[in-house]
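Supplementary Note 2. Why include the ligand at all?

Several targets in our set were suspected to adopt different conformations when bound, so apo predictions alone were not considered sufficient. For every target with a known small-molecule partner we therefore ran a joint prediction. The input for protoporphyrin IX containing FE is given below.
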Amino acid sequence: METIEVLALVAAVLFCLAVLWRSTSPAVQLIRDPAVAHSLLNEHADAFMNRPSAGLLTALATWTRGPERNETLATVTYGSHWRSLRSNLTAGFLNPTHLAAVAPLRADAIQDLVTGLSQAGGEEVVMREHLDRAMFTLAARLCFGGDHGLEESGVRAMQRAMDDLSQAMDDTVSFDGSTLGKITHWRRLRRLFGLFGPLFEVVRPLIAAARARKSGDSYVDSLVELRVPNPDVDVVDAKRALTDDEILGLVAEFLATNTGVIVACIEWTLANLVILPEVQRKLRCEIDEAVAAGGGEAELSEKAIRDMPYLRAVVLESVRIHPPSPFVTRGVHDVATGRLRKRLIFMVREIGRHGSAWTEPGQFKPERFLPGGEAEDVGHMPGRNEIRMMPFGGGRRFCPGSNLAILQAKFFLVALLRNFELVPPSSGVDLTEVGDFNNVMKKPLRVRVTPRKLP
Ligand code: HEM
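The joint prediction is reproduced in token form.
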């Protein structure tokens, strides 16, 4: 065959592959309107119970297929396996009695944060560095238990591994859909999955220790004890334990959801409090009054924190305008083949700032969530009759950790405002957003923290 004929043949094959690829690629629909989001997620919840399946690229990157993949709560298909994992987290770990018992761990983390910031001597600090450290220590203790030999060096090694994973995740999500993009995406995915290795090195002995002690109240203890449906055995209601690989995935998910997004929520809130001194002053007044009413205790009670209307309004306004997770996805799959037909992307940021649902949507105005305000009935979860914002998603797969996340953010904010005056840095505060997986401040917030004389 002549060279020219070979080239023509190669071009024809490539053309056919491109047409095939395009014709089999799932359609993508972007949802920006709160009313449309409500109709899809609330009125047709049964049709949108799953996120898009991971697909060919993930299979290539992990060299695994279908049920062999280690599913996490966020990736698993709606069904009995999902129900087991979800009720283990919500009815078990996140139930109010259990959470009350972890209050001392949170108090320790907050105390360390306040001590660290006090040493800054009124100088400018990069708030995220301090918050990341405190929040990660807390998450690791919630995950593995406060007194099971979790060394500081192990916590920091885990934090480094998780930082790399979350950076790789952000690089992977922002993928433009072009053929070149897909190839790059595949390479990024391979890198991403490779990053689980260093995390596993630190976590594997902790899983082994949890298996050996057979009881405990940390998240990893609950995963070791959990039995999930086993469809591979021909026995009614057959169950099996989770493998170490599966537990690793769930641990990574737990650490990720209990750190970066909560830190992002606190950082965005602080940025607005620094820019708007009047809002900061009002919030501090509410905190000082609650502290006085509580007899000046070092940490306010959970009830006192929940009963603070202005704090609630500030946090809601923060997650409305700067949702730490900027989009939520759903997939429509072919019933027979399981292949992804359509990908729906709910643009959480745009929904929370939609002109049809909010007046002056770009302005940070906590008052809108107070009694008499335009959003006095809006909470952090979508209402039954409407969606006006959805920072924690909606429908069947809404975020199970939303209450904990809001509570942790409030406790940290109260401690910071109670102990420090927060003054803008000389360079000002830049609210530019970055990140597709997590929505963070492009320029990490710098603040001058001046210790307060406690009333
Ligand atoms: C400010 C902090 C947080 C934000 C902004 C956030 C946001 C979200 C969003 C938007 C989703 C997708 C919901 C959907 O698809 O409808 C989600 C899912 C999820 N979140 Fe959170 N989250 C936060 C904290 C947490 C915490 C603390 C936990 C665990 C204790 C958690 C565990 C999960 C899990 C397991 C899922 C997947 C649920 C499922 O598919 O059934 N999140 N989160």
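Residues 73-74, 86, 253, 257-258, 261-262, 265, 324-325, 328, 391-395, 397-401, 404-405 surround protoporphyrin IX containing FE (CB under 6 Å). The CA atoms of residues 420 and 451 lie 4 Å apart. Comparable summaries for the other entries are listed in the accompanying table.
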